[in-house]
Amino acid sequence: MAGSIKRSGKFDIERAFRGGTAALALSVLVLGAIIVYELFSSSGPAFDRFGFGFITSRDWDPVSELYGALPFIWGTFYTSILALVIALPLSLGIAVFLTELAPVWLRGPIGFMVELLAAIPSLVYGLWGLFVLAPIMQEHIQPFLAQYDYLPFFKGYPLGLGIMTASVIVAIMILPTISSISREVMYTVPETQREGGLALGMTRWEVVSKVVIPYSRSGILGGVILGFGRALGETMAVTMVIGNTPQITMSLFDPGYTIASVLANEFAEATEKVHLSVLVELGLILFVISILMNSAAKLLLWRMNRYGSGSGS
Amino acid sequence: MNGGGLGYGRRKLTGHVMMAGSLVAACIAVALLFWIIGYVFIKGIHGINLDFFTELPTPVGVEGGGLANAIVGSIIVVGMAALMAVPVGVAAAVYLSEYGRGLFASSVRFVADVLAGVPAIVAGIVAYALVVSRMGRFSAFSGSVALAILMLPIIIRSSEEIFKTVPNTLREASLALGIPRWRTVIKVVLRTASGGLVTGIMLAVARVGGEAAPLLFTAFSNSFWSLRPDQPMATLPVQLFNYAISPYDDWHEKAWAAALVLIFMVLMLNIAAKMYAHRRPGR
Amino acid sequence: MTDKLKVEALSAWFGNNPALYDINIAMPEKSVTAIIGPSGCGKSTFVRCLNRLHEEVPGASSRGIVLLDGEDVYSPGVDPVLLRRRMGMIFQKPNPFPTMSIAQNVVAGILLERRMSKSEVEESAEKYLKLAALWDEVKDKLHKPGMSLSGGQQQRLCIARALAVEPEVLLADEPASALDPISTAKVEELFMDLKERYTIIVVTHNMQQAARISDKTAFFLTGKLVEYDATAKIFTNPSRKETEDYVTGRFG
């Protein structure tokens, strides 16, 4: 009845299973390496030809082989920063509402609806922006702002399609990212911290601004950077509303261009080897920037988790 | 002590204003959601009819027609992407949650996290360089590769999270019965987590199913029926984009209808996932 | 009586933190041995070292000899999976598999070795549910989920599941601590019956329980075995001061 407990000499499935899953986990690292390799090798010809001058040159005319990345880099950062300026207060407001103000029964549904904003495909935002938001901008908002044309932001003719509309659309798209991460880190603020503030005679808002937000600031910053990274890479919606004109301008009324949109517009039609290689190099720039943003956000959130749980219990 | 003094009055006022502001922010977000969804519904519902799902696209000015080829194309391209990404992603997640410790596992987690943030269009470039430039033409398969690159990190991270919710006591119960670890993973961990796993996969499908950026120069587009993975294939998102930026009203109407179909799919998948998450036993 | 289990110089760690120091103990065949001691004294770790479950915890390690019928379970050729088929284990909180029915839970361990027809499943389920004194309560709902039972019933289901593998040793890690008094009484009664056929080791922090069901009792304190003797002796006339303090409720 007592069977042997000795290992039989058969094929060791246990090890095979572990090794097999490990190999598939390794494939993620391989994929990362392939992405980096392909982007570098395909952009090689462009780099050999234009070097770092590519980044600082401002002319773009594929027909006469003029390739300058600066207008796209400018457009990408300008729209993303504007989007962040719009989205940050709204996102923090939503997070504060959901953690501090809303009755408990309302938190779930509202939180879910805000998250649904992130689920709507980029294309649908683009379509809505193109046919709904851009006309509103052109007819109502931009003419109003044009009174302040002594500011560099509101110069020129209100076109509707341009940097402003693109920034607003992107702001809506990154709002759920920032607000849901902020909400999560605010939840981790221990109740004793809030009670400490209340016991000192703080108002509810003072508890939020002086206790909750400072306590969770590195996590919120992580969410902001993650949202910014999303904004930089946002493609279809921006392509449909930004006006697709490579220029460096401060005016929000003017059309612009981003790295992602020039890729969307020109990649399929690029037949010249150099043109293609230049586009891949733009993709590489976008890739490197978003990797940096993501890594920074991850490190911040990771630190927040350790710090939060360390002092939480 | 100046309770009730002028300073306190101002503090109180600031507090009320800021808290009201947070309420307004939440209202704006919810209003935007309903505005966008409602608008797409109103504009798109006209275009939804049987033809939309069964007919091929027609040239500008010709009445009728539909997006049948693009709908089928999307199913094929996303389906092939899922076939590539789901098995690899789930297996990698099994490794991370059941065996993964130390530097290797941490680096896989980190790279998966970072890849999850790579812009969709960059995945398209990689698929172009890997497949299109080598095959010499656009193809449905290259589109699937691009979508699979996007799906893989999402699936890994969501599956690992789900596996972590399987209580350790169940693993130990199984091991104590003399069930080897690999069978424990399959019979107990995977089975217990299967619902959550499906939810995660559905959300990943919803996420990439609406993407046009990585398909523009991989799967490209096609006005005709094509079921061949080595040929260009129409997909719903790319078709929507082409229609939206065209100058023709009847194509715009089709774009809205396509948007309605996309939004409907995404909302259904998200709501189903949410309902499932609520039903899950335990915490 | 021969010794079913013999432990020599067993030590265990979680990472760098020692959990057990140099334990030497032997358990006679077909008897109930109770392991008592305050929480954190290493009693759970000790039983988890016997079926090599301790090593499945990340960072955990152990050293020493555990002889099962004279064979060291830590010798290099031993497969812990086969070892665990000879040593069943019951956990503190009942843990039936949530995706399986009552009958499937009982035969979960058998299904591993061979396929079973539906009637075989029912036959085995009946046999072991009877052994675990649960049959009368569940015979009409064998195909309902295991999670639908009460806590006490779930624990007896887990006992049936452990018995179905036909082990020789039963390890029980505070099997009644999450149960109500009536269920506890049922589980205790069950152990008294099972003693005829199995070597049982029960971890408990409930001293009355140890006194009621065990033949021998081991008292652990801060990772060390303080005293090990016949249960009657431990509870009436212990030879060590620490044991006396503990069993009379003066600390812990």
Summarize the structure.
By secondary structure, chain B is mostly helical. Chain B is 75% helix and 0% strand.
Give your account of this protein's structure.
The complex is a heterotrimer of chains A (313), B (283) and C (252). In chain A, strand 1 and strand 2 form a beta hairpin. Chain A contains 12 helices and 2 strands; from the N terminus they run ααββαααααααααα. Chain A is mostly helical. Chain B has 2 domains: 40 residues; 212 residues, Orthogonal Bundle (MetI-like fold), CATH 1.10.3720.10. Chain B is 75% helix and 0% strand. Chain B contains 10 helices and no strands. In chain B, helix 3 packs parallel to helix 6, helix 4 packs across helix 6 and helix 5 crosses helix 6. The longest helix of chain B is centred in the first third of the chain and has 40 residues. The model of chain B has no long low-confidence stretch (mean pLDDT 90). Chain C is of the alpha/beta class and 252 residues long. Chain C has a single domain, classed as Rossmann fold, CATH 3.40.50.300. In chain C, 34% of the residues lie in helices and 27% in strands. In chain C, strands 6-7-8-3-9-10 form a 6-stranded mixed β-sheet, with helices on both faces. In chain C, strands 2-1-4-5 form a 4-stranded antiparallel β-sheet, with helices on one face. In chain C, a hairpin with a 2-residue loop joins strand 1 and strand 2. In chain C, helix 4 packs across helix 6 and helix 6 packs parallel to helix 7. The chains are: A mainly alpha (313), B mainly alpha (283), C alpha/beta (252). Chains in contact: A-B, A-C, B-C. Chains B and C meet through helix 7 and helix 8 of B and helix 2, strand 6 and helix 6 of C.
